[in-house]
Each structure stands twice: as structure tokens, then as C-alpha cells.
Amino acid sequence: MILGRDDRLAARQRVAPRIHRTPVLTCDGLDRRAAARLFFKCENFQKTGSFKMRGASNALGVLCESDPPTAVATHSSGNFAAALALAARLRGLSAFIVMPRTATAAKRDAVREYGGKIIECDPTLEARETTAAEVSAREGAPLVHPHNDLPVIAGQGTATMELLDEEPDLDAVIAPVGGGGLISGTALAAHYFGRDVKVYGAEPAGADDAFRSLQAGRIVPSVDPDTIADGLLTSLGPNTFPIIQQHVEAILRVEDSDTIAAMRAVWMRMKIIIEPSSAVAVAAVLNRPDLFEGRRVGIIVSGGNVDLGRLPF
Amino acid sequence: MILGRDDRLAARQRVAPRIHRTPVLTCDGLDRRAAARLFFKCENFQKTGSFKMRGASNALGVLCESDPPTAVATHSSGNFAAALALAARLRGLSAFIVMPRTATAAKRDAVREYGGKIIECDPTLEARETTAAEVSAREGAPLVHPHNDLPVIAGQGTATMELLDEEPDLDAVIAPVGGGGLISGTALAAHYFGRDVKVYGAEPAGADDAFRSLQAGRIVPSVDPDTIADGLLTSLGPNTFPIIQQHVEAILRVEDSDTIAAMRAVWMRMKIIIEPSSAVAVAAVLNRPDLFEGRRVGIIVSGGNVDLGRLPF
Question: What DSSP letter does each residue of A203-240 carry, written as one string?
Fold first, then answer.
């Protein structure tokens, strides 16, 4: 396993020319509500609308440094699909994206817009993995896992490295937890580049596999998750789980009603569009003054891809 | 009339410590659609969510330089109401805000949140003006007109001054037209501080009193305006009309369907919340490649105050 400080620095150098350096925003109104100083790292403004562009760019950078492929493959129903498609196009590679046939039209359109080739499969994890393996073998396209690959994890952490450059004195950083790629990258970045920064994960109460996995001391997969935060349905992987065990202070669970209220508050107060998965982290901070009151808290706003025809308010 | 270059500079100095210097954003996707380079001056991120904070701050600054009042008054059903309330509070003044009893709960709440005192009146222009004059006399509170006062106009122009600092080589600037305070201030700022910048106004086709006024050569008031752009219902005033006549290249009319599509495009592409009145200006640029193709175009994004419960998509 490659989990060192140097790998973070290499990742940052690799992705910098291929991504946006996103802004860090503040909001007096939300600071008052949280009784804390909040720093929003706005990955909703990232290319393809989410932090996933960082991990995809780093993974392709690593692949191209040794024996450059002509194509890559992944399976994803969401933001990673679009991110890998664009990251591949920027390097002149083809991208084969295995998507469940239940994926929304908006998600497919995004992949197509960035030049990705969609392969449909049944909406089960097994079908996704089998189909992706087949496509990978047939096309000679290395498989990039959306959240468990170490270069993906390192790429996701670059958001926190940038945040700490601007705000080196953070007391805490919080990020949403789905498959764990973002929180793992965040935790390693905070560990190597922060000054005693506590890292928290925020998870929907209806998809709390990370919380339960930490309690059990082993990966407890997500079964029938039920949450509005559609980016956080997946389970931890063998690479992300031990990083979380070692470097994450706690996983904070959030009810969907609090997520919706936090999403609304950010839209109205900050005039920026964040997706429900990002609002989970904001809600966690608002819910827990015992942890965050009086602190300087970085919030990784993971993305801004919403379906305007199906808003929760 | 005080319409000189020095008044712009004084306004800028007056408002700078009391407002946000808002960011100028760009968007490759919208640039491609417009076949132009667009620079979005984001007054949706301004205090109180709109550019109106600039004009209110400058007007109060001018008042306080001579014989400081203890209170001020205005009539407004929208963004100026909240802006004057906050600008007054920041100077320790009371603010009496005459609002039609049809004003939405969200608009009232904003005024109250900033400490403004609401006086209700019938929803006619005559009732608003009469009530405001009464309140002003009774409370010894100078009346600040939402768009016709010269210091208000100068204040609104400071957005364009900031924009030109960052992008001195703009070919054009466009702003929405309601009562004309923003477009007048924009036009004077571009005249004094731009390098041959053409200024355009964007107006809903269903509230095109500025277009018709320019054609007629006299102020043609707005009668029964019908548009989703609820910030652009008012008519030009005696101060704004001549400035527009002299300094604005053309008024571009936009159908509501194009406004809604442009609003949706900005929300989805840029992940920022803009109100319909701002989307009118974006739509005007997208509609008129004959004017804007290949140009560097500044767009004044006037505000981001929307009712999330009543979105047009």
C-alpha cells in the first residue's frame, strides 16, 4: 500500500493542471447558526460538478506514467462516471463506463457529453463488477475503481491540501462518506499537512454502513440504503476502511430531514447549488455544537449535481 | 445633476467597506453556447443577495456626510427593501420600509431580519409613494428612492467599476433593466472607466417600458407588466431615462421562456443561484450572436433571491 506523504504531493502535482482550483467560501449567516467559523471548499464548482474529477485525473496520470493505455473503464451510476469520461478525454483516451440501466437520463447525458461510452448492466453490484471486468478485458482498458483505488483516494485528498494551504489553522475537516474515497483522501491529507486537524465523516442515517463498520471493526456492507443523498449509497472498500479506522475521529449520522434543511440553508444563504450528499456534511456540523462550537471547520462541498426537476423543497 | 467621474470614485470609496467585493466568474460551457467570452459579476453573492446593497450604502453614506439622520425610509416590495434595512442597521439608523401588502412572506422576513420596520400599504404605485411620503415626514426620515436617486445610481455602478478593474478589455457590458438604477449606474461607470465599452440593457418582453420609452423619446410607464422577472416590473424615472438615452447602446427584449432556460443553464453549469431578473441578461446574450459573438462580455448578475418553493422548472 502506498499511503505516504510523497504520494499526496505527487497526486497534487499530477492533477493541478487538469482540474479547477476551487474557491473556499465563507458565510456569516451560517457561521452564526453553527457558532463556528466554517470554510466551504467548493467542489461543486469543480469540472464535471464534483470532486470526483480529482481522483479520476490522478488515477489516469498514474496509469499514463508507466505504460499508457488507449482506454480505461469503470462502473459508476453517478459523478465518477462523468469525471472519468472527461479525465480520459483530456488525455486522448477512450472511456468505457458501465452504468446500471436505472441510472438517470441526466447522469447518462453527462457521460455522453464528455465522450464516454456507456455499457448498460443490471442494477446490482455483482452485475456492475462482472460487466466492468468483461469490458476491461475485451477492450484492454484498465479498470479504475470509483473509490477504492489508492491513486483515486490520493486524488480526492488534494481538495483538502488546497483548503489547508488557504486555511492552515483549521481545527476540523468534515466530508461526506459513501464508498470512502473522499473521506480517506481527506484524512490522509489532514494527517500529513494539517496542524492537529480532527477529521469527521458525515453519513446519512439511512446509509450508515461506515458508522456500523467502525463499530463492528470490519466492513459491514450497505444493505438497502435509503437516503436522499444518492451519492452516498455505496459501501466502504478494503483500502478505504483501514484508513478511516486509523485517521477519522468519528462518523456522524444525519437524518434526511436535516440534510434537506441544510441544503436549503446553503442555497438560500450562499446562493450556491450543492447536492444532497454535500448537505449531509453541513447538517452534521449544524447538529453537533458539542464538537464544533467555536472551532474553525473545513467542509468539503463534494458536488453540485442535482436534478432541478426533482428538488426536495 | 451630479453625473461626473468624481462622483463614481467617491461612491466606490464610500461603499467599499460596507459591501462584499463580489467575484467575477467564467464558465467554459456557457462561453461555447454564446460563442463569446462571458464574465459574470456575481452580485447574487452580495450582502442581502443583490446589487441593491451598493446603492443603499452609497445613498446613506451621502446622507450621513452632511446632517446625519436617525432614520431613513423607502418604498420597495423587493431587494431594495432588504438592502436599505441592512445598510441602515450597519450605520445605526432606523429604516422604515413601505411595502405593498401583497409582498411575499420571504421578502418581509428578509426586511425584518435586517431590522427594518415594515409599513404596509395598498399595492399601487400611488399608495406606495403617498405612504412613503407620510412616513418620511412623520419620522423625520429622509426618503431614499430605490432607483431614481443619483447616489443610488452611482452606488449601483460600483459593480461595473470593480468588474472593469479585473477585466479592463471588455467589449460590452449588459445588465437587466427595471427602474433603471442598475443600468444607469452601469452605463456611467462604463463611460468613465471602460475602454470603448458598449452597454446593453436586457428587459423582459412582458415589461418592456424602457424599450418603448427609448423608441418614443419620453418615459412610457409600465402598465400591467407580465413577466417571471419580478425585479423588473417598475418603470424608468426622470433621472435614469436621460442617462439611458445617452449612454445605452440598445435595450434587448427577452421572452420569459428564454429567461427560464438561461436561468436553468446557469444553475446547472455554474452551480450558482441567480434570480430570474438576472437570467434575462444572460438570455439576451445567448439570443444575440449578431451583437456578442467573439466579444468579451460582462454580465451583471443582479441577484440570487428566489423562492425555492416556486421555481419555474
Answer: EEGGG-HHHHHHHHTS-----S---S-TTS-SPP-TTH
Q: Which residue from B22, B81, B24, B23 is spatially nearest to B52, judged by alpha carbons?
A: B81
For chain B, say whether A308 makes contact (Cβ under 8 Å): yes
Please spell the DSSP secondary structure of B155-172, one letter per residue: HHHHHHHHHHHH-TT-SE
Q: Which of B268, B270, B271 to mutate to test the interface with A (most CBs of A within 10 A)?
A: B271
- Cell numbers linked to A217: 471493526
Q: Is A196 left (phi over 0), alpha (psi -120 to 50) or beta?
A: left
Does any CB of chain A come closer than 8 Å to the CB of residue B32?
Answer: no
Considering only the beta carbons, identify the residue of B23, B49, B271 that sits closest to A49. Answer: B271
Q: How confident is the model at residue B106 (pLDDT cuts 50, 70, 90)?
A: confident
Say yes or no: A309 contacts chain B, CB-CB below 8 A. Answer: yes
Whether the predicted pLDDT of A235 surpasses 80: yes
> What angle (nearest 5°) sits at the alpha carbon of residue B271, between those of residues B267 and B277?
40
pLDDT digit string, tens, across residues A283-294: 999 999 999 999
| Confidence class for position A104, pLDDT limits 50, 70, 90 | confident
Q: Per the structure block, which three cell numbers stand in for B110?
A: 428578509
Mean pLDDT of chain B: 96
Q: Which residues of B touch A23 (CB under 8 A)?
A: 23
- Between chain A and chain B, the number of residue pairs with CB atoms below 8 A apart is 36
Give me the residues paired with residue B98 across strands: B75, B119
Q: What is the pTM of this model?
A: 0.95
A-chain residue closest to B301, CA distance = A271
Min Cα distance B267 → chain A (Å) is 7
3-state secondary structure (DSSP) of residue B62: helix
Class of domain B5-52+149-310: alpha beta
Considering the segment(s) A70-139 as one domain, its CATH architecture is: 3-Layer(aba) Sandwich (3.40)
Q: What are phi and psi of A54, to 5 degrees?
A: -65, -50
Cell of A49: 460538478
* CATH code for the domain defined by A5-50+150-310: 3.40.50.1100
- Whether the pLDDT of residue B144 is over 70: the answer is yes
Does position B1 have pLDDT exceeding 60, yes or no? no
Query: What pLDDT score was predicted for residue B2?
Result: 67
Q: Does B264 touch chain A (CB under 8 A)?
A: yes
What is the Cα–Cα distance from A300 to A50, expressed in whole angstroms? 10
Chain B contact present for A304, CB below 8 A? yes
Give the Cα separation of A87 and A43 in Å (integer).
16
Which DSSP category does A310 fall into?
A: G
Q: Nearest CB to A272: which of B264, B272, B311?
A: B272
Taking the Cβ of residue B272 and every Cβ of chain A, the question of whether any pair is shorter than 8 Å is answered with: yes
What residues have CB less than 8 Å from A291, skipping those under 6 apart?
A: A172, A200, A250, A252
Domain ranges of chain A: 5-50+150-310, 70-139
pLDDT at B121: 96
- pLDDT category, A203, cuts 50, 70, 90? very high
A255 vs A200, A283, A292, A298, CA distance in Å? 16, 9, 18, 21
- What ipTM was estimated for this complex? 0.94
Q: Is residue A267 classed as helix, strand or coil in its secondary structure?
A: helix
Say yes or no: B137 contacts chain A, CB-CB below 8 A: no
